[in-house]
Amino acid sequence: MIERIGDFLMNTPWWDPSIIAVLVLVGAFVGFVNTVAGMATVISYGLFMAMGMPINIANATSRVGVMLQFSTNSVIYKKEGLLDVGLAARVGFPVAIGAFFGAEMASVFPPKVMEIASGVLLPLIVILLLLDKDKILKRYNLHYTSQMTFWKYLLFFILGIYGGFTHAGIGILVILSSFFFLGQDLTHANAIKQLTTVIYTPVALVIFAIHGQINWPVALIYAVGNVIGGVTASKVAIRWGEKFIKVTVIAVVLVMSAYLLWKQF
């Protein structure tokens, strides 16, 4: 069964209606998960590689849908009054600078090292979501504010290197960093993630385009599904709130981290 699916994806041209349907449907699912949490980009990699793309082409091709999806999502969050554009811009600026270096690295090196690091570190980081942040702040007399400092800029710059290298997991890292270091609740942190992605993704796209690593027909068809899934997820996340985002992030991280580690063996 799996072999037949592989043959179908490998040998069917992108303009075939069945492949277009697959791209839109999978793109919608990935767009939904990436909007609420993240990490679903590894599904995009898997699909594109099954279609015969090398990992670097799959990585670059997935970014077109990411750009269009998160642009649409940002407008929705802004209309709902959940997006602090100024704060998101201050986060997105260092992320975009880091993304330039990360994308250059991705155009040359395979993302295997990043995949292993993600598989190991993300579950450890996401455990922090299970802790009561307010109790920790009160117990240790800590104060988290949205004011950016040198160390926060440095943190988001490092995240940008990762995001430029591989989009898989960067959304969760931005959510968690905004949650723990900028004092945002998960709903507002998710909104910051949307605009941050819009700011840094064009930087990576330009690098990949210069290196001729984007399969544009597949990217644009896939983007249609990404936008559909992203719009649906934005409305669900806003309506169901922080608890839904927390549960989704934890579930996605555990599943995708297990997958990233398993595929190395």
Task: Characterise the protein shown here.
Helices cover 79% and strands 0% of the residues. With 265 residues, it is mainly α. Helix 4 crosses helix 10, helix 4 (55-79) packs across helix 11 and helix 5 crosses helix 8. It is globular, with a radius of gyration of 18 Å.
Q: What's a quick, concise take on this entry?
A:
It is built from 11 helices and no strands. With 265 residues, the protein is an all-alpha fold.
Provide the fold topology.
Blueprint: H1 2-11, H2 17-36, H3 41-50, H4 55-79, H5 85-106, H6 112-126, H7 133-139, H8 150-165, H9 170-181, H10 186-210, H11 216-262
Tag the structure with descriptive keywords:
single chain; mainly alpha; 11 helices; 0% strand
Unreliable stretches covering 5 or more consecutive residues: none
Quantity of strands, as a count: 0
The ordered string of helix (H) and strand (E) elements is HHHHHHHHHHH
Percentage of helical residues? over 70%
Radius of gyration, CA atoms, in whole angstroms: 18 Å
